[in-house]
């Protein structure tokens, strides 16, 4: 079920982003007088199609929803009827062809702005950026950060939530900052600042940076009290009830919920002898966690029980962040621009070797992020769509033949020399671009598989 969930949201994400990308090409083509033969979402066998008449555009939904295309009248792709020649793409002036090609990536960036605007207006509920245990010999420890400190700003940018704090830390590192100023509020309410010093080796990849920072969110000690139970879970079948306090498992005292979770997960299909307290009476129970396979092939024990967290504890650590519809407009543009330039910077660093190619994410990683963000809720999934839409727009603008940016490069050369490159030269560079693209895809998939099996 977890795999199907991941595949479903990955398919939804790709379909939405590709559809909007192709809509950009289609809309501008129609507005500039180019005849569009087909607008397809997906490849392969047609599952659904609509065409008002033979002279109108055919709209298609195909079997493989991992892409799409807009097919225009073009003499380079086949014979064109004499009456359609004025509407052929290849016969349009340079500015029209440029606008049509650029429209796809631009629409992706506009879509990202819309997604980020919705997220900011709807609002997000996050956890306050209070530090838990700071790893010894970490960058955070060297900077003087301690458990209980709350990060209030990073490089003068306010950080209301844990996610915002991490975003600013990683963003500053990608931007080339090597001395990051972190404003904190100590447990005794003193306002102070610390400086995290980074080296080039620390920012080779997000994984390395995360490990070397040594930051973890504060985790309260929560009593192992059973909360909500699933109907067919192992916990209910063993006789556990909401409100039961776990005292011990196999004679080992259990003092907090995380300790109980770790104990259960480590014992799939293993009988556990429990001692629980129910209405001030101690009761013995036998519980066998079910063996559940994870996406990485490992197995965990699960019992179908949640924790009973006191409402006052949740409210004390939560913070809500939202903007008015007007305030969210410039903020959404700023967020999209930031992610676009960050993507370009990371690509440039990988190209010159100052950042690891392990920063590449392939379809497997993207699918996992899609499923994980969907599980986190509506706003998290919209943020994921916004990030991927920015990446799709920026990557398509790269001057690589086969991509939209490659065509724009050809048009730039045409504008300079006054005539288009020959078909033979364009074909040569497109084959080279296809080889480069396939090589990058193969590398990304290889890295994905490495992450999956590790």
UniProtKB/TrEMBL annotation:
UniProt cofactor(s): Zn(2+)
Bilayer-crossing residues are 7-28, 99-122, 380-398, 428-449
Any single GO CC term annotated in Swiss-Prot or TrEMBL for this entry = membrane
Is Signal included in the keywords of this UniProt record?
no
Q: Could you say which enzyme class this protein belongs to?
A: hydrolase
Reported EC number(s) for this entry are 3.4.24.-
* Family annotation (InterPro entries): PDZ (IPR001478), PDZ_6 (IPR041489), PDZ_sf (IPR036034), Pept_M50_Zn (IPR004387), Peptidase_M50 (IPR008915)
Q: Does the keyword Transferase apply?
A: no
Membrane topology recorded in Swiss-Prot or TrEMBL: Multi-pass membrane protein
Q: Which keywords, in A-to-Z order, does the entry hold?
A: Hydrolase, Membrane, Metal-binding, Metalloprotease, Protease, Transmembrane, Transmembrane helix, Zinc
Q: Name one GO biological process term.
A: proteolysis
Compartments, as annotated in UniProt: Membrane
**Superkingdom as given in the UniProt entry:** Bacteria
UniProt domain PDZ: residue ranges: 115-188, 211-280
A GO molecular-function annotation = metalloendopeptidase activity
Q: Which residues form a coiled coil?
A: none
Provide the family line.
Belongs to the peptidase M50B family.
Q: What is this protein called?
A: Zinc metalloprotease
